[in-house]
Amino acid sequence: MRPDGDPAAEVEFRTSGQSGEPVGWLRTRAQLHAETALLARSVVGEVDRVVNYAPPRHLYGRLFGELLPAHLGVPVHQLWRTPLTPPHLPADARTLLVCLPSTWVVLRSVVDDIRAARGVVAVHSTGPTTAITHTVVRSLADAPFRAVEILGATETGAIAHRRLAPRGPDATGAALWTLFDDVTLVRDDPTRREQPLCVASPRLARRHDMPGPPATLQLEDLVRPVTERRFELLGRTTRMIKVNGRRLRLEHVEEALRRVFPHADLVCVPKIDRVRAEHYDVYYASGPDRIAAGDIYDALAAAAPGTPPPRRVHRVPRIPRGGTGKVRLDRLLAAAEREEVTSGAG
H or E stretch including 199? Predict the structure, then answer.
């Protein structure tokens, strides 16, 4: 994408839906180049080269892995096809690392190279940080290294950022997110302490069936505003998770499995994963019948191609539910501890 192209021309990015149909969102070249310049001055600073682990078919990878190097006039080394390849870090160069949650496992193996380099900036997005992320950041507290987390979505582009502190989020405010300069937090009721994350920005994308971009967009995140420009991210308002940036609605996974196993009571439970940040396990009760983990993997592959399989499959005597049918997660997890894990995929 050349900067001298038609600024009004649109580029489509599709939400990375795996259990639901991906949705196309269109952004103009002008919006993409405005965001590139914003990220360069607000987050990246001066670098000599870029190492990119994010697929450019998604907005995050396109911005940081293609448009940003072109904007800065620096070379880029694409590693998104081989995400377990350690980066080459010349000692005399300032390097930008474009990271996924799983990238930090790789960076842990090159901590000495990062420390010896002239300077390294790591940007992190597409999912929460992991314990390994903070282990790496903590080990580089005295090095010329800076790590920044980006919050955003295909629909909105980059919304906010925060510095990853050596000790991780703490009471000093490291857990707070700061909005980018051209983003506004929309508050219908300023008296509410918690609210869905709703933003306005000139960079909002146009959904494929809309005549133009919306004035505001509400995401599936719950926040607690602290000031006009800063907020705390509390979690999600839905059962959507992201596995290395791929959106996955757990209720859709459950529906697909129930069609194949109609006599089983089953539920998907979100889990924190030490490598991929977010993932899920399947818990099922099927009386005397045992469901092989491979059957669950095959069912998902047939009913919802591309859906990441669960980390583990647990057989329990029953799925405990309250009076309204809602799963009693505390009792479910306690029961699972006493039962055999059918398989481990992660």
Answer: strand 195-200
